[in-house]
């Protein structure tokens, strides 16, 4: 699979009144063309900051982004997204990379029909007239599984359900035919049946359009359902990465193993264990394994820098205990 995006040692430093918050401390990850990749981790570990970096959505005056994000354009040329100006990002947003958020529908105007808003987005990216844009909007609604599209286009957002609105936001995000769709917790606000439908929709669209999806989630059941590969994040760093099967069936980092036990999953039987303790202070330095203060298996070696171990050509983890079950 050809590489579409390669993030190398990404850091995000937020300049706040309390000091410099180190939200992302050195993330490296890859997304192949048409591949569905997950970033999973608990609240505050840096998932959203990582996704926002790819689209240059930080407040430029209060954020320092370091590292590289090498992206291959439709033309075949590569660009370093980390070095782009806001002006250059405008050319990337939409046509190359697009984003769907947990609460995307809040960005819709409540007083303008869905059809009009979809047409505006389509017209921003295509050289066509409004009646044609209307037809494209109806086609897109059909492709995201909305019945009677012509009727829905006349509705105001308030006349539609949360699941329908999320489908509409996905339709808008793919209207510019992006090659990479970033999804930040796209199903968290939805009930479990609608969640499953939206995930199936993302998988279908990815396959049909050879569109890569980078999906941010705190829920391993999302990973199991649609991801080809996954990166487990902790304290602004990657703890483990591998195929969805490798990481969920044979975790090599103690944090991954604890997270798998603690996160609600339809397949989990019995009581869930919660991961005791909290993430390290985002303003402080981290020496050794960031999970050490919470890890039941921590030993002296964990307080020094922990190297990344390769378990298979696709499976990596930064844990001294590796796959060992004891200790
Ligand atoms: N604008 C900001 N100013 C200061 N700190 C921030 C800012 N944005 C994020 N952070 C901090 O950076 C860290 C990572 O934030 P991020 O939003 O990426 O987490 P997340 O993994 O997406 O969490 P969640 O699952 O809750 O959405 C958190 O500690 C957060 O408090
Ligand atoms: S490196 Fe050590 S502290 Fe970190 S997860 Fe592995 S065993 Fe626990
Ligand atoms: Mg987030």
Overview of this protein structure:
The chain has 2 domains: 3-96 and 178-317, Rossmann fold; 109-177. By secondary structure, the protein is of the alpha/beta class. It contains 10 helices and 12 strands. Helix 3 (114-125) crosses helix 4, helix 4 crosses helix 6 and helix 6 packs parallel to helix 7 (192-209). It starts with a strand and ends in a 10-residue tail after the last strand. It has helices at residues 47-54, 86-92, 114-125, 130-143, 149-153, 162-174, 192-209, 220-226, 244-249, 254-262; strands at 3-16, 19-32, 36-40, 63-72, 78-80, 97-101, 180-184, 212-217, 229-234, 237-243, 309-312, 315-317. 30% of the residues lie in helices and 25% in strands. The structure holds adenosine-5'-triphosphate, iron/sulfur cluster and magnesium ion.
What's the layout of helices and strands?
Layout (H helix, E strand, L loop, with lengths): L2 E14 L2 E14 L3 E5 L6 H8 L8 E10 L5 E3 L5 H7 L4 E5 L12 H12 L4 H14 L5 H5 L8 H13 L5 E5 L7 H18 L2 E6 L2 H7 L2 E6 L2 E7 H6 L4 H9 L46 E4 L2 E3 L10
Parallel strand pairs: 3-8, 3-9, 6-7, 7-8
Antiparallel strand pairs: 1-2, 1-4, 4-5, 9-10, 10-12, 11-12
Helix pairs in contact: 3-4, 4-6, 6-7
The structure holds adenosine-5'-triphosphate, iron/sulfur cluster (SF4) and magnesium ion.
Adenosine-5'-triphosphate binds next to β1, β2 and α1.
């Amino acid at each position: 699979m050809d590489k579409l995006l390669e993030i190398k040692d990404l850091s995000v430093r937020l300049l706040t009144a309390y000091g410099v918050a180190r939200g992302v401390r050195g993330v490296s990850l890859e997304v192949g063309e048409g591949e569905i990749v997950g970033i999973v981790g608990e609240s505050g570990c840096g998932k959203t900051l990582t996704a926002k970096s790819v689209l240059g959505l930080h407040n430029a005056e209060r954020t320092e982004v370091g590292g590289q994000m090498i992206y291959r354009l439709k033309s075949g040329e590569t660009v370093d997204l980390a070095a782009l100006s806001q002006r250059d990002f405008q050319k990337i947003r939409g046509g190359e990379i697009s984003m769907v958020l947990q609460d995307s529908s809040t960005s819709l105007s409540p007083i303008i029909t869905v059809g009009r808003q979809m047409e505006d987005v389509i017209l921003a990216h295509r050289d066509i007239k409004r009646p044609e844009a209307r037809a494209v909007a109806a086609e897109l609604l059909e492709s995201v599984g909305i019945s009677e599209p012509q009727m829905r286009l006349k509705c105001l957002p308030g006349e539609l359900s949360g699941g329908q609105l999320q489908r509409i936001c996905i339709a808008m995000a793919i209207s510019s035919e992006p090659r990479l769709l970033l999804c930040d917790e796209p199903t968290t606000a939805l009930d479990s049946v609608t969640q499953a439908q939206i995930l199936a929709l993302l998988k279908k669209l990815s396959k049909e359009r050879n569109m890569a999806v980078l999906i941010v989630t705190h829920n391993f059941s999302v990973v199991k359902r649609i991801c080809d590969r996954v990166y487990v994040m902790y304290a602004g760093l990657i703890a483990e990465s591998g195929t969805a099967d490798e990481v969920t069936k044979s975790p090599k980092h103690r944090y991954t193993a604890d997270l798998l036990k603690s996160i609600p999953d339809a397949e989990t039987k019995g009581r869930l264990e919660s991961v005791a303790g909290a993430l390290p202070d985002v303003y402080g330095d981290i020496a050794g394994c960031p999970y050490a203060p919470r890890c039941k298996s921590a030993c002296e070696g964990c307080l020094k820098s922990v190297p990344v171990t390769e378990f298979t050509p696709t499976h990596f983890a930064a844990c001294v205990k590796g796959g060992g079950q004891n200790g």
